[in-house]
Amino acid sequence: MLINAIRGHCAEFGLIAPQGARHADDLIEQARQAEIDTLPDLARSALLSMAWQLDALGAQIHDLERRLLAWHRQDRASLRLATIPGVGIITATALSATITDPSVFRSGRELAAFLGLVPRQNSSGGKARLGRISKMGDGYLRKLLVVGATSVIRRARTSDAASSAWLKDLLERRPARVVTVAQANKTARIAWAVLTREEVYRPMAA
User: Fold this and answer.
1) What is the maximum span of the chain, computed from C-alpha positions, in angstroms?
2) How far apart are CA 133 and CA 113, in angstroms?
């Protein structure tokens, strides 16, 4: 939000930079160096104040990431979860901290349902129809798994690994958004198995 605010205010004075968070520093430097007829002192002061807030926030994020990594390294469940494709340190620590007792779920599908990653059932004329995902349960974990699934699908498009065949086949028949949710559902079920069996993830053999 801060970066977008800085970018928007700078644009009003003709100061622009390529898209992406890493280019925010370019805009801030332009604001520092801009002539007064381009950027009035009051506007410069406001922009540099936001830049200071951005630096402070970056330092806090770095400290949190360092502490999170330390916690991850001493938590066996988190280390096992991080062996699953699409599950990084943030997702692994979040899953480990939230699902402290995987036995409360009778199956991986129950965990996926808890996270809202299964289709909502609608009944009409005595027939059950599957609609969009329910989005029930923990929205934060669901979002992390969907983001991770997106990266798995991106790699699968150019991979010859046996584990990518299922995704490639699904992508030929379903929209990418549907496939992403299906992969997130699969990841949730794998996570349940990893937590329940206390084993690392083992990829499917070719």
Assistant:
1) 73
2) 9
